[in-house]
Design a protein that fits this description.
The protein is mainly alpha-helical. It has eight helices and five strands. Helix content is 54%, strand content 8%. Helix 4 crosses helix 8.
Length: 179
Amino acid sequence: METLESIKPFISSKTIILSLAPKITIEAMKTKLGGFSKIARCNPNATSIINEGFNPVCFSAELNTDEKETILEFLKLLGKSPEVEESKLESYAVVSAMAPTYFWFIYDELYKISLSFGLSSDEAKDMLKNVIQASVDVYLEYGMDSYNLIPARPLKDSEEEIRNILRTNLTKVFDKLKN
C-alpha cells in the first residue's frame, strides 16, 4: 500500500496499473489512489520464467477492451493468462502460483533416487520430464483410475497423511490471503 502512495503523483489518464501483490484488492487500491481505477491484478507463477506460466488476471470494470488486451499481450510473454473473477484470485494463488513448491522437492528427490539406482543424469531428467507430464495428462485428460493402472503403490500407507498435510497447510495460506 505504501508503494501505491509513492506512485500516486505519477499516475495519469494513460496509466494502467498491473498489481502482482496478493491480498490487496482492486477496490482497496482504488481507495488508496483516490479513485484511480485502471487497475488489473495478476498472480504469476514460477514457470513464467520459461514462458510457460499460468498467470490468472482480473481487471477493474473501468478498463476497456483495448486496455485489457494491452495487459494480456504483455502477459502473453510469460505463458497463459486466463481472465478470472477477482474473488477467485487468491484461490489461484494458492493452487497455481505456489504449486511448483508442492512438487519440486519431490521431483528433486526422485531425480536423486534415480541417480542412486544407476541412471545417468540425462536418463533421469528425460524420464522425469516424460513421466510427470504424462501422469498429469492421465489424471486430468483421460479420467483414468490411475490406481488400477499401477499395481504397486509404495506410498499408499502415507497418502492420507500427505493429503492432510496439503489440506491443512494450503487452507492456512488461503485463509491468510483472504483475511
